[in-house]
Design brief:
Length: 443
């Protein structure tokens, strides 16, 4: 009996410790272990494609620029515990231990899996791809060094559809230049605008152009021919066209009775005074207006700097927010009250790009140029800081200036013209963030 018991226990022990073998040699997932200094490892996503006897592993999107693949720790999951797995990196073959720091820059890369019962072998080709350009780098090119001969002119670039129109006025005549690409320009005829047109007051809604001077509102559908409407008998005087915002053209008007500034709007081609009274020092010239959708997904606009009616150089940064559900949907907040250290600025240009505001150019109240660096606001214009000059800076040929035009079209930033103390420029620069449309390519 004792012999029988011992024999039974021995048999049970042997059965319990027998290795479970499998004829499956399949890789289920592949990844890189996270490393604190290199987020590209944790972000890297791989797809495993199964074939009958072979497989293929590739990075779904290119791995972040600068990720050192020569210091990668691979991670694997298998369908069944393999008998063995070895990785070939170039001429080097390594038996996997699960915590190897390996050089994935070597080619070719093959992962060979042998099933635990040694009956099946499967080879996977692995291709991790790293971005070869810095996604956070802005690339700039000069499209033209001069649209027209140098003179002492004021300029404004606008878009009608997908076409560029540059207006220039030298004090006694207004000129018009047209381009389809920002690189090649031709002069066009112009009819209907006053010879003393302050072209920086021209506003576009993409389909028509608007300009106001004295008691007249000028409109055009083609940039070349302008119609004039007399507002001399209106209850207000037109101070300036302000911007295109929320599918509406806005203006600054002054009520003739109380002599206060109000927001005006174009309604079915008729300019009307609204109920929104503006601050007495709201800008009426040399300001910058930009429309954008912020992180809250509410449509916003900013009016930055400029001159008030009394000639004061302004520090103001008016944030305008539209809330459709409100009984009075437009709300005005002057950010410069809480952030007064922001310098007084006129002649700046601001665009919404890559989910942030970018500011270029401008002068202060003493006509000192701010420089040719780019300022960035990631909090919708409340605070600003200088952009990282290793990633985001204007080309070396771009000199500090004011009254340039900056717009965004087809994910490109265009900067046109401007003035410094001695020169009026009509050059055109085009810039683009490397990664601006990478997310459109994936999947």
């Amino acid at each position: 009996m004792l012999i029988a018991i011992v024999s039974t226990m021995t048999a049970c022990s042997t059965k319990k410790n027998d290795p479970i073998t499998s004829n499956v040699a399949q890789l289920n997932t592949f990844s890189f272990a996270a490393q604190d200094n290199y987020p590209g490892f944790a972000e890297a996503k791989f797809k495993v494609v199964q074939g009958t006897d072979t497989g293929f592993v590739y990075s779904i999107d290119s791995i972040r620029f600068g990720t050192p693949l020569n210091r990668a720790v691979p991670k694997y999951t298998f369908e069944a515990t393999p008998g063995s797995a070895k990785l070939q990196l170039g001429d080097t073959v390594i038996m996997l231990s699960g915590a190897d720091t390996l050089d994935f820059t070597k080619r070719p890369i093959y992962l060979t899996i042998i099933s635990s019962d040694l009956s099946t072998t499967k080879v996977y080709s692995i291709q991790p791809l790293v971005h070869q350009v810095d996604p956070d780098l802005y690339q700039w090119e000069t499209l033209t060094t001069s649209i027209y001969p140098k003179d002492d002119s004021e300029q404004q670039l606008v878009m009608l559809g997908d076409e560029f129109y540059l207006f220039a006025n030298n004090g006694y005549t207004t000129s018009l230049y047209h381009s389809l690409d920002g690189r090649s320009w031709e002069k066009r005829t112009l009819e209907g605008l006053p010879s003393t047109c302050h072209v920086r007051g021209i506003v576009s809604d993409g389909e028509a152009l608007y300009y106001a001077q004295d008691a007249t509102l000028y409109t055009s559908l083609d940039a070349e021919t302008w119609a004039a409407d007399d507002y001399s008998t209106a209850t207000f005087t037109i101070q300036t066209m302000l911007m295109h915002y929320n599918d509406t053209i806005w203006a600054v008007v002054e009520n003739k009775e109380d002599q206060q500034l109000y927001l005006g709007k174009v309604n079915v081609d008729i300019l009307e005074q609204t109920e929104y009274q503006l601050d007495a020092n709201f800008p009426i010239s040399d300001f910058c207006a930009v429309e954008f959708a912020g992180t809250s997904e509410r449509l916003r606009a900013m009016i930055i700097g400029g001159y008030a009616k009394n000639g004061q150089c302004l520090n103001s940064r008016w944030n305008i927010e539209y809330a459709e559900t409100s009984t009075k949907p437009y709300r005005f907040i002057n950010y410069s009250i809480e952030q007064p250290s922001f310098t007084t600025l006129t002649g700046v240009s601001v665009v919404w790009y890559n989910n942030q505001l970018l500011m270029v150019g401008g002068v202060d109240a003493d006509m000192q140029f701010r420089g040719n660096e780019i300022l960035v606001s990631i909090d919708e214009g409340f605070t600003w800081q200088q952009a990282d000059t290793t990633k985001c800076q204007l080309p070396a040929s771009y000199t500090a200036r004011q009254k340039q035009t900056m717009i965004v079209h087809d994910d490109n930033i265009y900067i046109v013209g401007g003035q410094d103390m001695s020169t009026t420029y009509s050059d055109v620069y085009r810039g683009r963030l490397n990664s601006i449309d990478w997310d459109k390519i994936t999947n």
